[in-house]
Every structure is written in C-alpha cells, then in structure tokens.
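Suppose you are handed a protein chain with no further information: no name, no annotation, nothing but its sequence. What can you learn? This example shows the usual starting point.
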Amino acid sequence: MAWLFVIVAGLLEVAWSFSLKLSHGFSVLLPSVATIVLMLASFLLLSHGMKTLPLGTAYAVWTGIGAVGAGLVGIVFLGESASPMRILSIALIVAGITGLKLST
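A reasonable first move is to predict its three-dimensional structure. Written in structure tokens, the prediction is:
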C-alpha cells in the first residue's frame, strides 16, 4: 500500500507542476487553487508512504515520477523540446526509479 501512496503522490506532483505552469506565477485563480490543493494531496500521500518505506527511496521515487512526468507533459502538451539528450535523460531517471524500487 505504501508504494501505491508514493506512486499516486508522484502523479499528483506532475499535476501540480503543470497547474503551477498554468497559474502564471499564481496570477490566474483556478490553476493557482488547483496547484495548492494538488500539492497538499501529494504531500499527504507521500507522508503516508514514508511511514513504512525508507526516506531516501520514497522521496527519490516521488521526485523521479514528478520529474519524468513533468518532462513528458512539457513535451506532449507544451511543445517543449523532445531532443535525443532530453529523452535519454528521462530514460535514465526511469532507470534510477526502477533500481530503487527493486532494491527495496
């Protein structure tokens, strides 16, 4: 169950980072409110996952999911670069997350 909490928390991190981008520095109300609500939910689920998972593993997986997800959202929805180096870097983060999951 702890892994489910961390994975969902990571997905919520992707959502709040996207809504943060849409908030334009907290100057647009709805995305600003969404950012805060999604952040709180993400932190709450992460804290539940950390009750049983090692700190370093839970935090690294959470941030890794957020980084990979935000990178992919940027490419797919915001027209950001999908250069080979960027894709390779995202793949390396996925490999690191997988390694941490397998070692726990």
